[in-house]
Design goal:
Layout lengths: L20 H4 L6 E7 L4 H4 L41 E7 L2 H14 L10 E4 L2 E5 L2 E2 L24 E4 L45 E3 L4 E3 L12 E15 L7 E3 H10 L9 E2 L7 H10 L35 H10 L3 E6 L6 H6 L4 E2 L1 E3 L13 H5 L11 E9 L16 H15 L16 H8 L8 E4 L2 E7 L5 H10 L81 H9 L1 H7 L9 H4 L10 H10 L15 H16 L8 E2 L33 E2 L1 H8 L3 E2 L3 H4 L13 E2 L1 H11 L15 H9 L21 H7 L21 H9 L20 H10 L6
Parallel strand pairs: 1-2, 1-6, 10-14, 11-12, 18-19
Antiparallel strand pairs: 2-3, 3-4, 4-5, 6-15, 7-8, 9-12, 9-13, 9-15, 16-17, 20-21
Helix pairs in contact: 9-10, 12-13, 12-15, 12-16, 15-16, 22-23
């Protein structure tokens, strides 16, 4: 029964799709097909329907186009030696842009990546790698040329699958014109000068490669294509969603707030959530960042570490890392485990968000599209994805899933520049494209997908492009416009039949699991702060303290008392008032847990309070709360905003009240000033790990000194302005006003260190010793506050000398008192004579500032010689 038929109309990309049967009738379309790219489509490649013959590729007269049978062209391979097959389809699931890079490498350099794919590697639906680990196929040895795990040595990389258009994946211009809100094709797009704390470069891919003997390049010149032109085949619309751990307490998020989280690492309020990211080599990352309005190279979140493929790193414990994940499964794992996590993944498919939300692994977040006029939270249901033009009801995050190939799949002329040499690869993609373009739906859809054609499979598990009302502009991705190829019949079929990859629509927020799952904390023989070695958590109402762990088993359902991370006073909010309970829980988790929960609904302090993901509940979590979670909870203009000063003060006053210790973190002040409550907020730099803006506070080294002053100077800005916040570390906000400016320097010097601006050596006063240091470094750059750069502008100049120059109780020594002791004497005369006759800026003795120490300066000093201004 024919449900509908339509033709795609994408100019140039699909060609005519009407090449004559005669020109193709003698082609041999058998052989290897090798693709690399997106993790989002793994379930498509893993389904038999993806390689059922629609176009009669093998010329035997049995094909979907004739409606006379179903034939599998890539029969599964389950053991070795590898049996004869018509197609050997091999896919490396490594992330869109990473796979695109592998495609460009082979096309221009003829090289293969010798790495195990992060998400999966499959050969005719048999996995030879999963989660970054090799999988042994019975009786098979891996390709000796590539230590990746595949038993079939690839002959080429024929194409790539991107979650987005290829133009979204390619950087433009140079880093000098980069900015967080660049659009595809704009100069500077895909570059970012801010690397991760380990130096990971987030730039997007290039179409150029250096051969050592010159540069070679692919191109997107569709108007006048040549042998190096690549073409996009847009096969589906892939919605991408923000996901959150139940502990984060995020039901809705505005686009403007999401921008702040993923560009700066914190919310507009200053609250320090965990921004979980894939690396910039991900199409899922690329799609959601672009449609959110962020250049993907700048969507860095917590921005920790290098790109990684080991799923164990996404679990809590030693070396845990939430950012620069190579695969979507790693993001999903990190979000499931980090109780403050906000991340993203594809919506559709059996291993993506809809399925995971129905399994209670994490929550799908509603989005307010306030940047494009929306005011209401939109849930990414099937209806919202399809009817997506109105930002108050339509869901507008995602990307056009695109196969990318060098050449045209429907070009059958061997002499044409766009002819694809590997005819198996051309036929493979043409089989998918034509199946989409002329879709025959069987009367009874096969739920196992065995008897469906590729287009039918896509309509059931993804969203064919003509079925959605609006699509983003290629060069302005957050701007959705009416779909020129819209097909209402297709849309209604998708609405009625697409189950997002698993038995139903997107579940309502909080409807599956009230508190999420027990975090997966890795087993560690060294033991965690609660004594567990197997990674499980204690139920302090029941479990004895044994090294094996407790009854809260990893990845099982968590009870309601643990719903909100950081809610130590059980009032349903995470704010400054939770600090007292947090301190008590760190000090004695058993006593605190028993006193603050019931046997029927026990609390696990190591779950609700492990903010930094190391599996422990300790003082570093207390610092995290003071630095990023101490939200104001009283009515007023600052309600709901972070106040670091109040947070650190509360830690110390609670510590004094509960333990008799005013200085909870044991902070030393370089000036020797007696410690006062909250002074530890000034310790933001100096550690070996170094500060990591947006992530947990890693910079503290136990001392407030010049390194902290320099770091505050380096982070001036207004947090409410994302153009400034992107270059800020809000840990430098000393007075809690969400600004970092001169007032914070004054707070750090005067209130915390007990001195004044100009005290270069931090001995508590400004005198000749400070002036001498600055004079010795005059004209130097990069010496910092303790080198005399007291105004923080990067160098030591006359402005700094003017600040440092010590004053005297009575006038009369302004010119001749060169050493700042308020007496014009022999020491001053010697200092002047040492430089007499010299020229240059900042010379000691140049009292008239003419850049020369001469007679006029000597005369002025002699006039004041012997003057005592004390």
């Amino acid at each position: 029964m024919r449900i509908f038929a339509y033709r795609m109309k994408t100019v140039a990309l699909f060609g005519a799709l009407a090449a004559s049967a005669a020109s193709a009738s003698t082609e041999d379309n058998s052989g290897q097909v090798n693709f690399s790219g997106a993790t989002l489509f793994f379930n498509f490649f893993d389904s038999p329907a993806s390689t059922n013959d629609y176009i009669d590729a093998d010329k035997n007269g049995v094909a979907g186009v004739f409606g006379n049978g179903v034939q599998q062209l890539a029969v599964s391979i389950t053991s070795c030696p590898i049996p004869a097959r018509y197609w050997y389809f091999q896919y490396r699931s490594v992330g869109s842009v990473n796979g695109f890079a592998e495609f460009v490498d082979w096309q221009l350099l003829g090289t293969f990546r010798d790495t195990v794919p992060s998400e999966a590697g499959i050969l005719n639906r048999t996995e030879w790698a999963i989660g970054g680990n090799k999988v042994q196929i019975p009786n098979c040895s891996e390709c000796p040329d590539l230590q990746t795990g595949t038993p079939l040595c690839p002959e080429s990389i024929d194409g790539s699958l991107l979650d987005v258009r290829s133009v979204w994946a390619v950087r433009q211009g140079s880093v000098s014109t980069s900015a967080w809100d660049r659009n595809p094709s704009e100069p500077g797009y895909g570059w970012n000068p801010i690397f991760s704390n380990t130096g990971w470069d987030p730039k997007l891919e290039s179409l150029e490669r250096d051969t050592g003997n010159g540069t070679v390049a692919l191109n997107t010149n569709f108007a006048s294509p040549d042998e190096n032109t690549i073409f996009d085949y847009n096969v589906a619309w892939g919605p991408i969603v923000y996901i959150a751990n139940r502990g984060a307490g995020i039901r809705d998020i505005a686009i403007t707030d999401a921008k702040h989280v993923f560009v700066s690492g914190r919310r507009i309020s200053g609250e320090n959530l965990v921004g979980v990211t894939r690396s910039s080599g991900s199409g899922t990352h690329n799609g959601i960042m672009n449609t959110t309005g962020i250049d993907p190279a700048w969507g860095r979140g917590d921005n920790l570490g290098n790109e990684f493929v080991d799923i164990n790193i996404a679990k809590l414990g030693f070396n845990h890392q939430p950012t620069n994940c190579e695969g979507s499964s790693l993001v999903e794992e990190a979000v499931k485990n980090r109780r403050l996590a906000l991340g993203y993944t594809g919506l559709a498919g059996g291993s993506r968000a809809a399925a995971d939300a129905l399994a209670g692994r994490y929550e799908i977040v509603n989005v307010v599209f306030d940047d494009r006029g929306g005011a209401l939270p939109v849930r990414p249901t099937i209806d919202a994805v399809l009817d997506n033009c109105n930002p108050d009801s339509g869901y507008q995050l995602g990307g056009e899933v695109s196969f990318v190939m060098r050449g045209l799949v429907d070009d059958f002329d061997p002499n044409s520049p766009t002819f694809i040499e590997n005819r198996a690869a051309a036929a493979y993609l043409r089989n998918i494209v034509e199946s989409i373009g002329a879709f025959d739906d069987p009367n009874n859809i096969d739920p196992n997908q065995v008897n469906n054609m590729p287009g039918e499979l896509l309509s059931l598990t993804f969203f064919l492009v003509p079925g959605v009302d609006c699509l983003p502009l290629a060069t302005d991705p957050s701007n959705f416009q009416a779909n020129a190829n819209f097909n209402s019949v297709l849309q209604e079929f998708v609405r009625d039949n697409n189950g997002l990859g698993i038995g139903g629509d997107t579940p309502a927020y909080g409807s599956i699991n009230v508190a999420g799952l027990v975090p997966d904390r890795r087993a560690d023989a060294a033991g965690y702060s609660d004594g567990s070695t197997n990674g499980n958590y204690y139920n302090y109402h029941v479990d004895p303290m044994t090294p094996s762990g407790g009854s809260f088993v990893r990845n099982t359902t968590l009870n309601s008392r643990n719903q909100l991370a950081g809610d130590f006073n059980n009032d349903g909010a995470r704010d400054i008032d939770d600090i007292g309970g947090l301190l008590a829980a760190v000090d004695d988790p058993r006593s605190w847990a028993i006193a603050n929960s019931t046997p029927a609904n026990p609390v696990v302090p190591e779950i609700i309070g492990d903010y930094d993901g190391d599996g422990n509940l300790d003082t570093e979590d207390v610092r995290y709360h003071a630095d990023g979670l101490a939200l104001v909870n009283v009515p007023g203009p600052t309600a709901g905003q972070l106040d670091r000063r109040a947070g650190f003060e509360r830690v110390d006053t609670q510590s004094l009240a509960q333990f008799g210790n005013l200085n909870y973190f044991g902070t030393t002040l370089a000036t020797g000033k007696p410690y006062e409550a909250g002074d530890s907020r000034g310790d933001v730099a100096g550690s070996t790990a170094g500060p990591a803006p947006g992530a947990q506070p890693l910079g503290a080294d136990g001392v407030v000194d010049c390194e902290d002053i320099d770091y505050v100077y380096a982070n001036f800005g207004d947090w409410s302005d994302l153009d400034q916040a992107v270059f800020m570390d809000l840990s430098c906000d000393m007075n809690g006003d969400l600004l970092v400016d001169a007032a914070d320097i004054a707070e750090l010097l005067e209130d915390i260190l007990g001195t004044t601006l100009g005290d270069v050596n931090l001995d508590g006063d400004v005198d000749g010793d400070d002036l001498a240091i600055a004079q010795a470094n005059f004209g130097q750059t990069g010496v910092g506050y303790c080198g005399g750069d007291v105004d923080g502008d990067g160098d030591v100049d006359n402005d700094d000398l003017a600040i440092i120059s010590p004053g005297c109780p009575s006038p009369g020594c302004e010119d001749g008192d060169l050493d700042g002791d308020c007496v014009v004497g022999l020491a001053d005369l010697s200092a002047l004579l040492t430089n007499y006759g010299l020229s240059g800026q900042g010379l000691v003795g140049d009292t008239d500032n003419d850049s020369t120490v001469g007679l006029a300066d000597l005369s002025a000093l002699l006039t004041q010689y012997g003057t005592d201004c004390n």
